[in-house]
Amino acid sequence: MPIFLFISAVEIAFVMFVAVLLFGADKIPEIARNLGKGMKAIRNATEEIKNEVTKSATKNGIDQSVTNGVTKELEEVKKEIEDLTGTIKRK
Length: 91
What we know:
Elements: H1 9-23, H2 28-59, H3 64-90
Helix pairs in contact: 2-3
């Protein structure tokens, strides 16, 4: 059985069962859709921040190596978000 973030398949099934009990089967797709939209908004915001930092650095003549650390951190956050949303989309 696959393990995602140190959570077993049984634990995931239990959480899904509780979610169905709390929200009802008809609300789960709507909740997943809204969660996906939120993740997309976060991803777009990180991309905008990265673009603004790069554009501002170029405009002010700042060495791009200064912004590389910020860009690297934003890329890592973006990858984590994509990993999370990828598992949500596959379900």
